[in-house]
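Operator note (shift B, R.M.): manual run for Lipoprotein requested after the automated queue skipped it. Running by hand, logging everything below so the morning shift can see what happened. Input copied straight from the record, untouched. If output looks odd, do not overwrite the archive copy; leave it for review.
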Amino acid sequence: MNRLRLRVAAYPLLPVLALVPLLAGCGDTGGLVSAGSTPTASGPVHLWPDRRGASVPPADPGGAPPEYVKGIPPVHDQDVHAVDPVALVQAELRAHPNTEVGADGMPAATAAAIRECAKDRDARADEDPEACPVQKPYYRDLTGNGKDELIVGIEFPDKMMSVRVYTADPDGRLNRIMATTETIISVELAGGDVILRVPSGNHGYELITAWSWDEKQRTMLPTREQIARVPGGPQAPGSRDPAPVPGRR
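Run finished. Output pasted below as returned.
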């Protein structure tokens, strides 16, 4: 009789014991918890796979070919900091006079103003900053050779700007490796890239172009482009956030 009572009394304990692992799991913060079923991954689907696609010829690199600047003395130890940017642009004007289109293109009025810029840096200290279209230079190693390149901006009418980059070869000669003219919103440096923001042609959007050094072409090329929405609300000049740089190579 006692044995029967013990056996019967044990049955109600089974549901309670079954709850013990569940209750212990509720207080376990360090264990793995299932997030549910994982969705099946699906790759891109090629539509109309039997269709013969168009033949695409190789693209033009798009950048200006490298060009040595004539009329500038070689620099020592590839140090472009020693170069007067105004004298550099004036030398280019002498080498390409009356050129209004292409990498050396410049409005006649802008070229005339550059020719009138003070001939040395000390004299320009007292000059009206807006009198000379050649802007303050910037320096950054863009080619990865451990030496700075010289970045020059030339202000054109109607918010247009010519952005030019120069490097010095082992012999000290100045080599122009980038020259582009755009209606510029802003110019930024990100790593080894020159980032240009320009109006995209679509209301409310900008076109962001990253120019990068190309070892094969030995010049700077527009390697990545991105359309970005203009942040809402008016902004003061220079208050824009840095460009969201397209993914680096």
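Quick read of the result: The CA atoms of residues 20 and 122 lie 86 Å apart. The longest helix spans residues 13-26.
Leaving this for review. - R.M.
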